[in-house]
Amino acid sequence: MNRLSKSALENVAKHKYSGIDDSILAKLILQKYWNFCLRFVPLSIAPNLITLTGTITILISFFIVGYYSPKLDGELPTWVYILSGLSLFFYQTMDNLDGKQARRTGSSSPLGQLFDHGCDSIVCTLQSLIVASVLNYELGIMPLVQTFTIALLPFWMATWEEYHTGTLHLGPINGPDEGIVIIVITLLATGFLGSSFWVIRPLESFNFLPQIISGLRLNEIVISSLAFPTIITCYFNIKHVVHHLQSKNKPVLPALSQILVWIIITGCSFIWYYTSTLLLNENSIWFTNIRTILFSIGFIFGELVSRLILAHMCHEKYNIIQAPLIPLLLATFVSVLNYYRGEVIFSEYILMIIFATFSLVHYSLFVKDTIQQLCSYLKIKCFKITQKKQN
Questions:
Q1: Distance of alpha carbon 38 from alpha carbon 187, whole angstroms
Q2: What angle do CA 127, 133, 139 make, to 5 degrees?
Q3: Which member of 142, 249, 312, 320 lies 3.0 to 4.6 Å from 163 by CB, making a disulfide possible if both were Cys?
Q4: Cα distances (angstroms) measured from residue 151 to each of 60, 136, 283
């Protein structure tokens, strides 16, 4: 059990969320829309219930898209594209209404912040796989590149910055606001254009370009173009943390070393992918069950992010190597061993079942234990408003 110390619980009780959203789109349009939607939310609805509703919507969309596109390719029914776009927009709405509802009802709590961001971390992986199917990525390296660099990296860096500076700072153009709206428009547009639109090669007529560039599909160009703003965002995350720590005369290197968590997750995943696919080709579980593997890794990432948020609230040190990483490290080791032996010593399918089960169960127990301890100490309920309403 993830038992929090008395001092940790005391620090959590004193914690106050600090966030800055400089989004241009949010200030001009989205905030007005969210405030309008808030009028239709009964005062009796708990903020965490709003958060959970949005998350379940994405989960449903994930399974529906996966049913029609298990290998991240092919044409989907038009209604599935529309549903995936509307589900994401609904999720974004719920993700912003929960905080407004908490302040409106006087039920804000550290648990709400942890629950909200914990759900967000899981949705990152789910939505990345939805996009991979809609944009017709097919099996291969592209789903991994998008998931680990475009989705998980900026989320980890933003949470890491919050851990050290105490404030979650979203820039003028950011993922949770502008990024989600762009994805929603893309998903809806695909319903009319078809997913085959994303596999055209728009640069192939430019003979002066190197073949590696002229042969790029449109979806590959999109992913490549998204890498640039991601790098810029991560640069500013690091810059803000370094400046903050230096102003406090605190060492910088220990903080930078925590980025190793994302590097370990990403590195192990890519090593596992390459050793498995080089040995087994199309029989690799990365080709036959890629959604299961990435979904399971998403649970590992979600727990590690939640632990980072919790460590921030508790004012505790965050260790790089933690229990959630163990199944990924072991699975990677087994895959490397199979590869260098040139034969399957341990069944990949059984490995995947054990890996997925451990990831899900370990994350579920962490969530249950943490919620129970925080609710007990703060004298609140997770899905019910217990504080006096404030209009």
A1: 25
A2: 115
A3: 312
A4: 19, 17, 27
Instruction: Give the separation between CA 85 and CA 73, rounded to whole angstroms.
Output: 17
pLDDT for 242-270, tens place per residue?
999 999 999 999 999 999 999 999 999 99
pLDDT at 1: 57
- Amino acid occupying residue 242: V
**Using CB atoms within 10 A of its CB, is residue 57 exposed (0-12), middle (13-18) or buried (19+)?**
buried
pLDDT digits (tens, 9 = 90+) for 179-237: 999 999 999 999 999 888 999 998 888 878 888 888 889 999 988 888 888 989 999 99
Q: If residue 50 lies in a helix (H) or strand (E), which one and from where to where? A: helix 47-68
Distances from the Cα of 234 to the Cα of 101, 157, 253, angstroms:
31, 6, 16
pLDDT given at position 389 = 44
Structure tokens that stand for 13 in this block: 């009780």
Handedness of CA 266, 269, 274, 277 (dihedral sign): negative
- The matching CATH number, chosen from 3.30.365.10, 1.10.1040.50, 1.20.120.1760, 3.40.50.2000, for 6-378 is 1.20.120.1760
Contact between 176 and 170 under an 8 Å Cβ cutoff? The reply is yes
User: Which pLDDT score is estimated for 387?
Assistant: 54
Main-chain phi, psi angles of 384, to 5 degrees: -145, 135
Q: For the chain, give every domain's residue range.
A: 6-378
Query: Which pLDDT does position 385 carry in this prediction?
Result: 87
Give the count of beta carbons closer than 10 Å to the beta carbon of residue 251. Answer: 9
| Residues with catalytic roles | 117
Q: Say how many C-beta atoms besides its own lie within 10 A of residue 6's C-beta.
A: 8
**Closest among 133, 13, 145 to 76, alpha carbons compared:** 133
- Which residue carries 């709400």 as its tokens? 112
Residues of the chain under the 50 pLDDT cut: 389-391
